């Protein structure tokens, strides 16, 4: 090797020497990063901290915000309801089967209260499981003819915990545009890809499914682990119409997607025995992977449940957030729900009959005829949502003065994905139970219903129709004075 | 196959994790009897930096896991994992009967709903000791309760109720801090009256037809109780967090959340869309560093200033038993102009000379905490949650909270129970029952903690917190402890992975004002399972 050193040409050696010296210099020189161009001194940091001003915790709310002052209800929220001191007929609570003031339900709740007290003082896993809960779960499973059911202590949390338990990041969910807010929160918590299809439009859904199929064929490895779900409601709370379940089941088997069905509005109401939209259409209940409903509408209790096959439902016992990390349902409310189920099973005829009012000028009825809750919407919009809402509020106030209680459907405008147009809710199904217990009322329930219609029509005539050009909202004050002038 | 029951028996009863447990018990006996031979881990007593902010001594301890114990625990889990794989293999080849629920025949070619590995822990580790959880009860969850007896003939895959009831089990698991879980007395009578008057359900949202006069009365009472301007009540404690944090913060805001925050706070923070940064549990240096960095550097990449910074902490952390260092947090919050969200799920009613929670415990001003949240499930024996704060905050929540617009309001008898129990705690019902219970709870807590510590157990948490976690570490001990205590008529809660770190499994006792001295003596005496060790 030393010989090679002597034999090498001089320029070669010099070049090598320079390179070695350069390497040594680089090794020992100070390194610098491009990002280190700003290193703040302590004083600068203190100044920044002093100068920073946060936004106020909450933005100020004007005193006449429509949702600020709630109407106060004194006494039981049943058919006749006392709002702000005035007794009205209740067309606004979701008390579809009228079980809120049923004596049997109350007695069972009281018996349970005397045995267990009010609260459960623990989640289901830690001595919060009562025998009443187990009984309610088995009754619900038997009623719906599924293998298993699971109860939640809050209706909103039911579907919002169920969806993220199965669908994770990377999975795909196809949802109807008119899905309710709790489904939207469940979708947000699941971090999956969400694809919306037009409301009740099966062609749109099929188009999306076909696109997904093409994507899958490009990448079969990924497709083998990507779960796909369709989330629909039985009876949509936002549009009061029914989902086309048989077509959905066909699409399910064709494209291999699972169906989650949310039946809060249709449980207890649709179908021959009240089993919901699956019974209404005659679909085999095992074809639906998960049915979720809340017990706060027809069942007149608090809470919610999911039912389906054990393979699906058992998973939620360890991964449903609202189930594992939250206290269980108070046993008296579970007992009330069991008794309500008993009543529903005994008397399958207590279902809703249709309440189809005539088209009143200026107002449009939205919803299928057999739906328990319908929407009344303005025929012509004024162009601004706020003024529409104010108009509807005036109609509702007018009706309340005439002892008919309606309610404006409220939405969180900034949070809803597809904001429904302004409308108010008319719960017509309430009177179905009146037919059964009409002896409790002095007047015939149909008279009461007609009174409601008349009041609404009158309100519309005075307020809606009397406003010729809807963009001139300085007429608002004229409307108010006109209402107080006209005495009934 | 014909030998499958024998195979299963062999695997369940005599598997090697049992052997490891036996070995570890002997090792622990050795350590206890000759402590000078083994270096037990150091005790971290957290002495706060700014002691001047604290009016009384703040003593918390989290003893480090001894090395030998840690090694044995990992070995135990390792052996269980190996056996888990073996069992899965046997199940796949149908040598062992499979109890796991299966997918429908018609849907076999769908994408599998669960990944196999997700359920590995559930199938092989959780199933072995599943009988320690979800134990059904059939009485009031008071100081003593009645359990429904259940047996399993197939190693915890399915349970059957024998029809018998195990009576008078001492309840160390329910969150019944002030003993309001009762079916007699003033609270129950008032709830009965409310049920007669209003019924059980409401069937409408708060902003529509669900706002009853009893809700308004409740909210005024809660505001008075906490010492804030105004408050709002919700039907579920979990939902209070997950639905209101998104209403308060959004994109462009920063949430600084404690490491060990509850799932509801984590979910609420995620749903809000804000950036979330986690600081070490109860560590004020970590929090201060995050605050400084956040304000100085602004949002990531764009460096725009943050719109709001929200610090989210809990009063008492239910798995550790530690109490938040509230004076220091408030000092930091004021210095850096952040907002504070305090979740007092476990501490309201349980801490403080007047039962007003952790603010009362430290003697601070409730107006310093921007958002005071809590639940009614634990100390009030009801269900639901509340948020208290300034009037502008509550007005904003009335109009923008998800719960007020979309979720049903609280059930009337539950609201009445809260009103009655709160009045008792405040002393407004004319009796001294509330003050007695508060005093009893703090006495029980001090006594029980001292007793267990004197016996040599490793107890985590603050000396004043009624949540007492007792360390177990080994996986087999979790099951053994739960079962042995039940045999001795004591109902305890044991927790393991994933609720706690993998080597730090523990048993958790929740002290109640309804517990008597005799009950606490029985529990601490029987918790000492030395007789079992010696019998081996």
Automatic annotation (TrEMBL), chain A:
Origin: domain of life: Eukaryota
Cellular component aspect of the GO annotation: endoplasmic reticulum; membrane
Gene Ontology MF term list: pyridoxal phosphate binding; serine C-palmitoyltransferase activity
GO biological process: ceramide biosynthetic process; sphingosine biosynthetic process
Coiled coil: none
Domain Aminotransferase class I/classII large span(s) in chain numbering: 87-344
Protein name: Serine palmitoyltransferase 1
Organism of provenance: Sphaeramia orbicularis (orbiculate cardinalfish)
Automatic annotation (TrEMBL), chain B:
Record-level GO BP terms: ceramide biosynthetic process; sphingosine biosynthetic process
Keyword Hydrolase on entry: no
GO CC annotation, single: serine palmitoyltransferase complex
Swiss-Prot/TrEMBL cofactor(s): pyridoxal 5'-phosphate
Positions of the Aminotransferase class I/classII large domain: 167-522
Pathway connected to this protein: Sphingolipid metabolism; Lipid metabolism; sphingolipid metabolism
SUPFAM superfamilies with a match to the protein in the record: PLP-dependent transferases
InterPro entries, sorted: Aminotrans_II_pyridoxalP_BS, Aminotransferase_I/II_large, AON_synthase_class-II, PyrdxlP-dep_Trfase, PyrdxlP-dep_Trfase_major, PyrdxlP-dep_Trfase_small
Record-listed E.C. numbers: 2.3.1.50
GO molecular function: pyridoxal phosphate binding; serine C-palmitoyltransferase activity
Membrane topology: Single-pass membrane protein
UniProt-annotated location(s): Endoplasmic reticulum membrane
Protein known as: serine C-palmitoyltransferase
Taxonomic lineage of the native organism: Eukaryota, Metazoa, Chordata, Craniata, Vertebrata
Gene that produces this protein: sptlc2b
